[in-house]
Structures are given as C-alpha cells and as structure tokens.
Amino acid sequence: MICVSIGRSRHRHVMAEHRHLVEEGAKLVELRLDYIRGDVNLKRLLADRPCPVIVTCRREVDGGKWQGNEEQRMMLLRTAIAEGVEYVDLEEDIAATIPRFGNTKRIISLHDFRKTPENLTAIHARLAALDADAVKICTMANHPHDNLRMLRLVQNAEIPTVGLCMGDIGAPSRILAGRFGAPFTFATFHHERTLAPGQFSYEQMTKVYRYDQIDADTEVFGVIADPIGHSLSPLIHNAAFAELGMNRVYLPLRVPRESLPSFLDEAAEFGIKGLSVTIPHKEAVLEKLTKVDGAVQGIGACNTVVFDGKERLGYNTDYRAAMASLEDALGGVKGDRSPLDGKSALVLGAGGVGKAIAYGLIRRGARVVVTDGQTQPAALLAKNLDCHSVDWIKRQTVKADILINCTPVGMHPNVDESPLDKHHMRPNMVVFDAVYNPESTLFIKYARSRNCRVITGVDMFVRQACLQFELFTGKKGPADLMREVIRKTIAAAKY
User: Where are the alpha helices (H) located in 274-369, listed in sequence order?
Assistant: First the structure.
C-alpha cells in the first residue's frame, strides 16, 4: 500500500487533495498538520474523510515545518487520537508522554537527514518498545548499501516496519519496500512538491513502478548511473513490462563510482536480474563481470549486465543499435556489404557510446576519426581501434560523410549548445546525435537546416532498449510503445 503525504497551507486544499487521491485509488494518506498556516481545525479535516489517515505534525528538527510551541503540537496529536484517527505518528522522544487511546494505532518514528546510522537494529528495538503498532525509520542514503541494510531491517522485523532511505540513492528502498514486507511506503501528491528528499509522486509510484503489484516474486531490473535523474529508461522498460503483463520492475539506481563493486556484489539480494549501465560505469563495470560478448571485448565498454546464477554477463547494445540506425539511414545492408563500408566518419566523444560507435563503424569498413574535449581519451581510443584522432579544437577541419555526436553537449537542460556549428555540415551528410532528451537537439536542428540526413537519439535509444529488453526477458521489446512513451515524456518536459 502507498501512503500519500499531503502538505498544504490551507485546509480546503488539504481536503481537496485528499478527495482527489481517493478518486485516483489511494487507500491511505498522511495529513501533515505542520504545513497548515494558522490554527489547525482537526474536526474540519477529519469529518467525512474519504479514507484512513495518518496524522503527523513534524518539528523542524525532524524535517517538518511546525512553527508553534511543543505544548501546542502535543495537544494537536492528542486531539487527533481523541478524534479517532486511524494512525498517529509520534517521534521517539514524545511517544512515552502520549498514551494509547481508543483504536488509533501508534507509529513510532525516527528521521535522520544526514546519514543511515550503523545501529539500525538497536534503533528499531528502542522504537518498538514504545508501545508501537508500527515503526517508521527514514534516513539519508549516502551509499547504495544503506538501502540493503534498511530493507533487511524491514524484512526481519517482528512488528510492521516502514524503513525508507531518503535522497536519490535511496530510491530502491521506496520502490521495493513492499517486496521486503513493509506495510506501506510513502509518496507525495505531486512530483514537484516532495515532502522528503527523493520522494516519488503517487502517480509515479502507481503508473510507472506499479508499486502495489510488486511482491516477493517480482524480478528487479534497473539502470545504474551517477547522476541518475535524467534517465528515461525506467519509463520505457516499466511500460513494456506492464504492456506484456510481466511481474518485473525497473528502478533508477544512483550508484557513485566508488560504490560500484560492492553494489554489484549485493545486487542479487535486491532481487536484481539485469542492469542497464551508463555514465560513469560503462568501463568500470568490466572488472566485475564474469563473461562478456565479443563487442564488449572489442569496445572496452559495457551497457548491459545480465545476472545468471553466479555469472555476470556483459553486453553492448549501444553498438548494435547505432549500427542498425546508421545502416537504415544509408538505405540498408545490400548483400554482405554494409553501406558504411568506405564512408568517412567523425565521432565526437570518446566515452562509452563513442567507443561503441567507433568500433562498429570500423568493423563495417568506415574510415573513422575520433575527437573529445579531453585529448588523451580520444588518442587512446584511436590507438586501440587503429583509427585517427584530432584535437577537439580541430574537429571542424575534418571532412566526413557521417557526423556523430556521442558527447552530452545539447542534453537537457543545456539545450542551447551544439558540439559543432552548422556551417560545418553539408547537404546529404548523415548527422547522428546520441542525445535523446531532447530529441530535436540544436545539433539536429542545425543538420536539418543544412538538408542533412538525420538520426535522432530517440531512434538509437529505443533500439538499444529493445535489445536490452530481449536480453533481460527473452522477449522482443515493444519498440512502438517505447518510442511513444519517450516522445510523450520529452514533449511534456519544459525546456
């Protein structure tokens, strides 16, 4: 179950959101009294309430907005109990001074906005001993391992326990809470009005992650990156799982570079069966793989990991997707010869995607020049692939049939930037941008204005996602659905 937190300054807005949430299917809401300005009218808020509620009134030290004195706050909480609310949230230091009364259930809570303490078990025991019907512990995740410690606590608890990690590193604990036995998790009314760091909206939890359908048998997948907020992979993979009726969920997983080895060692305990891999992990992940395909060996970068028992299998779907996009743009493969054979190509960017595309082009007979904002990675890639490199400032001097952007230049929110000026683009040149958000980057706009043949990042992104989906599930990815989801999402964003 999902408990949706409502934090509004006016009573009528609280009640309106409460009604709307119930109409959308919510079965439990948290009324954050500390957000209400002026005197709180509990009778008005609770009369004819459309679903059960948790009444909470947080002090600033606990992450709330309460401006009154402690005596007033305690009176509000006692009044809520007297009014027969379903749940009341009490912090550890006041729980003993507010006795049980009637049928109201007591949630004894602790919040730590700096860290996830090492002594979680001892903290839980202290809270549980305060006549708790349920325990709630919310802490800041500074390491992916914090999620696992919290979920273990939830799974092993003898009384109902809500254990959540805050921040974007803490996302797995929010989405997988029910899988590990939590009675509910928390969401916010709208994604732009979070009441705690890293909180998802009710719509995201229900429509993207299908939280209430996650159970102990749900297979877990995800994308690992740092940062993670820009990734649209969870939207398209979860939409595909839903379309095909699969008991699977795909998570956004922020994994700092230094945490990658331990995260991969612990992935199975999360229930993870497969991962998409992106910046900055495409090269670093190789050290933790047991087997890789030929493309990963040749490229030196991996964007897909499949867990098969004790095996960690590495693949590169960027390579295959990019080559399919380029060959289709050039009329498709005729016989045994790729249309890329004999073409000249300039690859901007020597990171994971740049490596994959340069490798594929060379294997298909193209003459490749690579460049990067940092000279050394481009020179090293050129040496490894036996092609040429140029300094970034000389990129505009290279004459090529195919121009490919594999840098993040032009990616949201820096949408007014292009890695190359339009005056260096020629009619009928193939221009390919690996950036997919936005789809129509300034680089792509320049190419269209010069009558170039254009490949957008959405085309490659969907192709590689379909290939990943097949590696994850054994089923072909629904390309049309994925393309529709990503384009709708991009169109709805504000640039």
Answer: 294-299, 317-329, 352-363
